[in-house]
Amino acid sequence: MAALDIKLGYLGDKDTLLEAISLSDVLINSSNNFLISKNCTGIAGLLFTLGGKEILELSEDILKNYENGVEIGKAYLTKSTRSLFGISGRLTHILHAIGMGYTSANKVGLKSTRILATPKAVYSSIYHSLELCEENKLSSVVIPLMCSRAGYSTINDPNPAYYMIRAQLQAIYDFNQNVKPKY
After folding, report:
1. H/E/C letters for each residue in 8-67?
2. pLDDT tens for residues 117-138?
């Protein structure tokens, strides 16, 4: 198989996200364990705003099999039969890389507790995302900065981005070097 074209960067605004969508087979959604919902923020929120009902339904199809949300540190692939978002481009897949989560109370409308991201979970979810790209013969992927905002990770530093980017880059490096995942 040809090398996977990997792009890593900031995707936190609509224009940057639309550009990434137009250039890739798959986009990684920096997701929590409930994937995409109407109340999501960040990339998941932008994806819902752009993709609406179809994006939500693709996520709900996965979640049907998980009472308390999907597993943190893993990745889950949603596929569409057409280009997503009704724009030109080839994006037909979204990979949900699960770096953080919420307790299941979120699903029943009670106050939920945030499960903070760790570099280990971010590394693992990116590595598993790249494996899914390879398994599904996808040729290009866009990876956002994950869990890099203060308050979303266990990193006790005003700027956790350094640690999360480092975890992502290590996962990409290990994948490209055929190194077995660390976690």
Report:
1. EECCCCHHHHHHHHHHCCEEEEEEECCECCCCCCHHHHHHHHHHHHHHHHHHHHHHCCCC
2. 999 999 999 999 999 999 999 9
